Every structure is written in structure tokens, then in C-alpha cells.
Amino acid sequence: xxxxxxxxxxxxxxxACVEAEQGTLLLDVAxxxxxxxxxxxxxxxxxxxxxLLVHAKQPALFTPSARERxxxxxxxxxxxxxxxxxxxxxxxxLACHVSVGSEDLDIHLPEA
Length: 112
What we know:
The chain is α+β, with helices and mostly antiparallel strands. It has helices at residues 26-32, 66-74; strands at residues 2-7, 16-20, 50-54, 60-62, 85-87, 92-94, 105-108. One of its GO terms (molecular function) is 2 iron, 2 sulfur cluster binding.
């Protein structure tokens, strides 16, 4: 099981700490635990479930799906259409496209 901590802002303490199995979508984890992660479609088209991630392997590179990349670009949360992106704490992701990996994660929700 992987430990996931949820934050509202970088300055706040975690408001939730849960464990999840590898391969589970972060959106599904949030929904299962009743966490306040906003979402509408769950399909990666609306951009509502955007999050910021912090983990031990940063900085690194990752390859977002074409859908995630296009949605984040369309809504102004990403500037690049390149196939490989930097994985940094300030890189927006979609919770419906991010699966739990092997590393503990800190998940920052956008301010309402």
C-alpha cells in the first residue's frame, strides 16, 4: 500500500492521509474516501480534477497521455504540447489520469 497525503495549499497541514493500492486512479481514491477533489466527467476531458503532485523521485520526466496534455493545455494549465514533460511540484496533472505508483505522494488540490 502507498501512502497518499492530501493538502489544500502548500502551507497547510495535510487534511487527509490514506493508503491506496498501486494502479488505482487518484480520482477513485479521493472518491472512495469522500475527499473534496472536484470532478465532473472522470474521463479526462473537463480539466476539473487537476492536482499538483509532490514525490521523492522529482524532478523527473513523464509522458502524459495525449488527452491529458491537450486538456491541460486547452484550459491554460500547461504551456507545452511536447510529448514528454518535466515532473515537478508545479506541474498540473489530472487525477483521472494519474495512477498510484510505488512511491508515497503528496497531492495538492487547487484552491477553491
